[in-house]
């Protein structure tokens, strides 16, 4: 942890550890100065080059274009690859579909890239294309939203899925005084990370202490702003007694915050979930969203870049117990993840009125 605390932007994001799967929300971190973190980069690494001296190419495919969270993730990936002396190729389709990602995978296979990292729009539909990439000698890993274990060598996970799901329910329940109707505004219905978090939300709600809290619907905004706004409005219309909306997606939570603000429902319908500080600051400061959570998407991408390079160099193969150095994030280890393996970034961090003013300037 001490190595992590010395990191660029991740330092404070990981300092706030959740107390446990069913415990209380994270505590406040020691105050840091974001501007000073810019100088925390490590010296340039030995260049990642091919046998003919050209830079190796590492690709990252996000779910869809125009997504601020995805843009930060790709920024972190690019930073890592450039630190390592490679060339980063960043791609994102106009629409969050598996078909669009498959086309991009085919293009990258033809370019003979060294590695492909992907935030999957579907856990299974990408398998033929990703297996084709691996058969061609390309190292494949997923990040943030996993593809199935047969489609990748390892997955980079932003935080413990159980802790994410449980803490969001804990937050919503506290905001509404432990009684009332709640809804979830998710991204796409195929997003593995979203679905896993929602399953843990439902498990948390099985605790008798939530007997007066009712989950009335899980809606899907497909990580598109306009659709997320429409889905929020539909929830309010269908459930006039709704007390809280949990949006475990940065696009969804910002859309929900706007709708609740525009309809003057502050204090009547609470908003929480996972959001970008820069986008959610006004809603946290106004009280529409008393608090929310997130990790640092820049660090998710950064860790993915170092993991991709470790796979290409053969430092790791994706097996449980493999270890490597992830730049300013320190030592990382491959652990079990269902049928496959994963590399964990850290725990979610709580943003509220006391710290949002500082972090809205960071990302």
Q: In a nutshell, what does this entry contain?
A:
This protein has 363 residues and is an alpha/beta fold.
Offer a few descriptive terms.
eight-stranded mixed β-sheet, single chain, Rossmann fold, 12 helices, 363 residues, 20% strand, four-stranded parallel β-sheet, disordered N terminus, alpha/beta
Chart the SSEs and their pairings.
Layout: H1 2-5, H2 10-15, E1 57-61, H3 68-83, E2 87-91, H4 98-111, E3 115-118, H5 127-135, E4 139-143, E5 154-157, H6 161-175, E6 180-186, H7 192-205, E7 213-220, H8 225-238, E8 242-247, H9 250-262, E9 270-273, H10 277-286, E10 291-294, H11 297-313, E11 323-325, E12 331-337, E13 340-344, E14 349-352, H12 356-359
Parallel strand pairs: 1-2, 1-3, 3-4, 4-5, 5-13, 6-7, 6-8, 8-9
Antiparallel strand pairs: 10-14, 11-12, 12-13
Helix pairs in contact: 3-11, 4-5, 6-7, 8-9
Structure notes:
The protein is an alpha/beta fold and 363 residues long. The protein has two domains: 2-29 and 37-158 and 296-345, Rossmann fold; 161-294, 3-Layer(aba) Sandwich (Rossmann fold). Helix content is 37%, strand content 20%. The protein contains twelve helices and 14 strands. It has helices spanning 2-5, 10-15, 68-83, 98-111, 127-135, 161-175, 192-205, 225-238, 250-262, 277-286, 297-313, 356-359; strands spanning 57-61, 87-91, 115-118, 139-143, 154-157, 180-186, 213-220, 242-247, 270-273, 291-294, 323-325, 331-337, 340-344, 349-352. The strands form three sheets. An eight-stranded mixed β-sheet has the order 2-1-3-4-5-13-12-11, with helices on both faces. Strands 7-6-8-9 form a four-stranded parallel β-sheet, with helices on both faces. Strand 6 (180-186), helix 7 (192-205) and strand 7 (213-220) form a beta-alpha-beta unit. It is elongated. The chain starts with a helix and ends with a helix.
């Amino acid at each position: 942890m001490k190595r992590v605390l010395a990191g660029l932007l991740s330092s404070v994001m990981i300092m706030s550890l959740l107390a446990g799967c069913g415990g209380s929300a994270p505590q406040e971190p020691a105050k840091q100065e974001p501007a000073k973190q810019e100088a925390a980069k490590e010296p340039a690494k030995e260049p990642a080059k091919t046998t003919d001296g050209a830079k190796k190419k590492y690709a990252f495919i996000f779910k869809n274009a125009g997504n601020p969270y995805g843009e930060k993730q790709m920024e972190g990936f690019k930073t890592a690859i450039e630190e390592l002396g490679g060339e980063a190729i960043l791609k994102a389709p106009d629409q969050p579909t598996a078909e669009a990602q498959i086309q991009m995978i085919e293009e990258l296979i033809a370019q003979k890239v060294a590695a492909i990292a992907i935030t999957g729009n579907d856990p299974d539909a990408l398998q033929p294309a990703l297996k084709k990439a691996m058969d061609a000698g390309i190292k494949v890993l997923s990040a943030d939203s996993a593809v199935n274990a047969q489609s990748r060598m390892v997955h980079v996970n932003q935080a413990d899925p159980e802790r994410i799901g449980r803490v969001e329910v804990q937050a919503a329940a506290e905001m509404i005084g432990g009684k009332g109707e709640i809804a979830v505004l998710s991204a796409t219905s195929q997003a593995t990370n979203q679905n896993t978090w929602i399953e843990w939300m439902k498990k948390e709600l099985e605790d008798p202490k939530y007997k007066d809290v009712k989950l009335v619907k899980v809606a899907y905004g497909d990580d598109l702003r306009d659709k997320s706004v429409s889905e929020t409005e539909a929830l309010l219309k269908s459930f006039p007694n709704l007390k809280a909306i949990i949006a475990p997606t940065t696009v969804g939570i910002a859309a929900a915050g706007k709708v609740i603000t525009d309809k003057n429902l502050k204090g009547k319908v609470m908003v929480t979930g996972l959001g970008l500080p820069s986008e959610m600051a006004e809603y946290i400061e106004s009280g529409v969203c008393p608090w929310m959570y997130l990790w640092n998407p820049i660090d998710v991408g950064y860790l993915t870049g170092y993991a991709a390079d470790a796979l290409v160099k053969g430092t790791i193969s994706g097996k449980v117990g493999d270890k490597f150095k992830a730049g300013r994030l320190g030592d990382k280890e491959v652990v079990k993840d269902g049928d496959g393996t994963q590399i964990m970034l850290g725990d979610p961090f709580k943003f509220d009125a006391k710290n949002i003013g500082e972090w809205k300037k960071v990302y």
